[in-house]
Amino acid sequence: MNIRDKQILQIALPSIVSNITVPLLGMIDVAIVGHMGSPVYIGAVAVGSMIFNLVYWLFGFLRMGTSGLTAQALGRRDLTEVTRLLVRSVMVALGIALLLIVLQMPLKWLMFWLIGPTADVMPFATTYFDIVIWGAPASLALFSLMGWFIGMQNTRIPMFISIMQNVVNILASLTLVYGFGMKIEGVALGTVIAQYAGLLIALGLLVRYYGRLSTYFSPTGNHHFSFLIPHFSFFKVNRDIFLRTLCLVAVNLFFTSAGARQGAVILSVNTVLLQLYLFFSYFMDGFAYAGEALCGKAYGAHNAIAFHETLRRLWMWMVMVTTAYTLLNMIGGQWIVALLTDESQVVETSCDYIFWAWLIPIAGCVAFIWDGVFIGMTATRGMLISSFLSALVFFTVYGLTVGVISNHGLWLAQVVYLAMRGIIQTVWYRLKLFNTI
Fold it and tell me: End-to-end distance of the chain based on CA atoms, in angstroms?
């Protein structure tokens, strides 16, 4: 194994572990409320979790933008900019969190209108929302810190934080629910406690391992507070990522709603099959993070040899992981579906659509790698344009095929959409970025 592979795996493997622990936070809450004696508690946590997952997803640029800019500054050995990027990103995160708290009433109304929870679930979902919204400062600040750590070529710290958050969440929720007799309030408070515990751990590790960088952070003179004002490039990068995320959200929400319009069985089948792709994304995101960190650092250092060698090794890992995962799906996909649900009608109907679960990783793998590389290069305009054009293709393919092949048309649109993202980014790289390194 050459040095590039070692560098890639040192970043990718901890990221994969972190990604796998993320859904555990929601699963833990569901498991606890699932023993409270009423299904409305499960519904409330499901609705509440969906709201915050969607809202926080929109602000994922805090992690991605910080990661790419930090990696480039590290590559240039500009440690002053490295430290300022962290402070600026955290300040922006806290500003957004404050805005979410101030506007929580209209935000809650909008999200409930979009999701449409039933009347019996609504009061409990409201309670969950009213408590968990106060965790926004911790969650968004953690986005900035996680992105900064990745930009610093360190994914072990984010992995440790993710694991510890789950441990705190389990202990806090169980204590509040079973020790103090709380119900939905205990689960919500446990989530908030875990979020702030994660932030405190992150800050502690930041001081422990990077405290020496404070010597590079010394604003002086008339511009004493200028370090708080992000550079235009920070807003440009994050604006592109935010708009790109809106395109992804639009496609994903439409995919779910279009399946729901075809009945509960089709909705369930689509949801279960998407879990197979979701698990694949946990692995590929790890290699995307490696692209962010390593390609970003090489790009910032103007080291074309390191950049292209890293990119070649990333493609090699992409092919190996995608091939192995696709074969696993083809051999055991139906067994995994049966493991995820015991509804016989859902399991039986999934047989008609299982082949789409084989195709989606193949269609989407290229976009994962390019997303990481583009973030590292802060070439976010290419990400935005590819996502926007691919979303248009998605809705076009769906509109042309759904009346003919029904749910197969929805899956075809999804496969074409994912493939187009990778194709457009490949063309963009060759035309716009290849000669800039």
Answer: 26
Is residue 222's pLDDT more than 50? Answer: no
What is the pLDDT, as a whole number, of residue 315? 97
Cβ neighbours for 396, distance < 8 A, ≥ 6 positions apart: none
The string of DSSP letters for 111-167 reads HHHHH---TTTHHHHHHHHHHHGGGHHHHHHHHHHHHHHHHTT--HHHHHHHHHHHH
| Identity at 135, one-letter amino acid code | G
- pLDDT at position 223: 47
State both tokens at 47. 């609705």
Q: Which residue carries 């980014």 as its tokens?
A: 425
Q: Are 428 and 382 in contact (CB under 8 A)?
A: yes
Specify whether the CB–CB gap between 378 and 68 falls below 8 A. Answer: yes
pTM: 0.91
Q: Where are the alpha helices (DSSP H) in 152-231?
A: 156-174, 184-210
For residue 74, is pLDDT > 90? yes
Angstrom distance (rounded) from CA 328 to CA 337: 13
**CA–CA distance, 187 with 177 (Å, rounded to integer):** 7
Using the predicted structure, report yes or no on whether residue 221 has a pLDDT greater than 50.
Answer: no
